[in-house]
């Protein structure tokens, strides 16, 4: 993925759980391709997460994230049995690090779900799965993604100036990290299915 999140909207403090039940986390699987395509079509800004414009591209996108021989661990954020978002870790097993990314469909942003999903997966990775550092980056013109990162316990570590060339203009990227030894953030979490909690992860010596 290219960044920590698409234009996810104000999420870190938003919440509507008093009206509807919160989502849950489970492993992404091949049957999610249609929902992934719908999510990418929900907002042109989702193109920051990759190129998914057809059913074939959606299937390839999901395959890359679920390939047993690959380095990705991906969780579907599900509400009422439908995929509404994604949290992904790209595993650097040698260094016990993970590159963190997330997105939500346009319709479900602003409810606090992205923050809860990100915090839940980050807790699992650092507390139970052998990761020692998580890191992410987002374009500076997407401050909502930074708000989610901070609420999920990540600390801003710097800015990569002119990281991307977009529409002829250089765009800066803010970088964040969360260590296993960092304080665990407060706030509610999501329920993670047992299968999701058994996802592959680095082996801690």
What does this 3D model show about the protein?
This protein is an alpha+beta fold and 205 residues long. Helices cover 24% and strands 31% of the residues. The protein is built from five helices and eight strands. An eight-stranded mixed sheet has the order 6-7-5-4-3-2-1-8, sandwiched between helices. The protein is globular and about 40 Å long.
> What is the H-and-E element order?
EHHEEEHEHEEEH
- Number of extended strands: 8
Distance between the termini: 29 Å
General form: globular
Label the structural class: alpha+beta
Radius of gyration: 16 Å
Low-pLDDT segments: 1-10
Largest sheet: number of strands, sense, barrel closure: 8 strands, mixed
Q: Into which percent range does the helicity of residues fall? A: 10-25%
Look at the structure and give the mean pLDDT: 89
Which strands sit side by side, in order, in the main sheet?
A: 6-7-5-4-3-2-1-8
Number of helices: 5
Strand content: 25-35%
List keywords for this structure.
205 residues, 8-stranded mixed β-sheet, 24% helix, alpha+beta
Brief overview:
The protein is an alpha+beta fold. 24% of the residues lie in helices and 31% in strands.
Question: Could you give the topology of this structure?
Answer:
Layout: E1 24-27, H1 33-41, H2 55-66, E2 72-79, E3 82-92, E4 97-104, H3 113-127, E5 133-139, H4 143-151, E6 155-166, E7 169-179, E8 191-192, H5 194-197
Helix pairs in contact: 1-2
